[in-house]
Amino acid sequence: MEKKTQIKIQALGKNIRVSVSKMRRIIDRIRNTSYEESLVLLEFMPYRASYLVSQLVVSAAANASTNLGLNKSNLFISEAWANNSTYLRRFRPQAQGRGYPIKKPICEVTIKLS
């Protein structure tokens, strides 16, 4: 009995200036969909971060076609996740010369195509 090996290719997005909960809302919707279907879903989502995710999906498909010679129509998103990264720290002036820290979240997104 022959085993078919699945080839997985990935694209990694670092330092994306969106909170993880907002990014997971988008990624959960496109997980386990085909390449074309995910691009259509991302194009019509009303979120700012959907454009960033669509760029990652296109980048992963370009990696698959350039490096391995795979056809883009046969690809689907097998894994996708978003993790916390560091915070972008800013300070806001407060009363009596104090500074109040503002933490702006940053996330990392990984998309794997099979």
UniProtKB/TrEMBL annotation:
Main location (coarse class): plastid
Gene Ontology biological process: translation
Gene Ontology annotations for the cellular component aspect, listed alphabetically: large ribosomal subunit; plastid
Location relative to the cell: Plastid
A GO molecular function held by the record: rRNA binding
Pfam families per the UniProt record, alphabetical: Ribosomal_L22
InterPro entries linked to this entry: Ribosomal_uL22 (IPR001063), Ribosomal_uL22_bac/chlpt-type (IPR005727), Ribosomal_uL22_bac/org-type (IPR047867), Ribosomal_uL22_sf (IPR036394)
Superkingdom as given in the UniProt entry: Eukaryota
Keyword Lyase applies: no
Keywords from the named record: Plastid, Ribonucleoprotein, Ribosomal protein, RNA-binding, rRNA-binding
Stored PANTHER family: CHLOROPLAST 50S RIBOSOMAL PROTEIN L22-RELATED, LARGE RIBOSOMAL SUBUNIT PROTEIN UL22M
Family to which this protein belongs: Belongs to the universal ribosomal protein uL22 family.
UniProt-listed HAMAP family: Ribosomal_uL22_B (MF_01331_B)
Protein's name in the database: Large ribosomal subunit protein uL22c
Organism: Ceratopteris richardii (Triangle waterfern)
